[in-house]
Amino acid sequence: MVDLAGTGDDGTTGLLGGGGAPKDDLRLDAYGTVDEASSALGLGKALTRSQRVKDVCEEIQRGLYRLGAELATSPDAKGKFPRTEAADVNRLEELMASLEAETSMPREFVLPGTTPASAALDLSRAVMRRAERRAVRLSRRGGINNLDALRWLNRASLLVFVLARYEEHASGTAARPAKSGRAGGE
Fold this sequence. Notes:
- The chain has 186 residues and is mainly α.
- The chain has one domain: Up-down Bundle (Hypothetical Protein Ta1238, Chain: A), CATH 1.20.1200.10.
- The chain is built from five helices and four strands.
- The chain has helices spanning 26-47, 51-71, 86-102, 116-140, 147-170; strands spanning 12-14, 20-22, 110-111, 176-177.
- Strands 1-2 form a two-stranded antiparallel sheet. A two-stranded antiparallel ribbon has the order 3-4.
- α1 runs antiparallel to α2.
- It starts with 11 loop residues before the first strand and ends in a 9-residue tail after the last strand.
């Protein structure tokens, strides 16, 4: 077993493939946010009763793990670890199309919280959007040069939105529109 006690106490952390970075570095912020998204997705997976939702969540989590590792890789070690590819983006699009075919999608913004599982999925989607913003910022600064990784993160957040609506449908409920039909918005 590796003794990690005290590792990082100096405000730095190691990167995959060698080297290190300060803990407030944009790279660490990006892959840390990807990790948060996976944890929120895990909550949705734990709360759902639908095996299909569990399976899709796990597939997305594995992709988030790969993406997080890609973001955590030292710029000097590029090419030594698996990267997100166009085929990974295509897989998300296939899953999204399949789920959309099985449920009606809302035509307006929805309020998260219809079911505990869909609420956790919506939270995960919001965290993925934040991770996407961090990854785009990192990309603009030359820290990542894989557009497929950015495309994958964008599609993953869309898929999780669809998955939340599928979860509601599978549980016999429907998403509530954010805007009420009453005057004054209430």
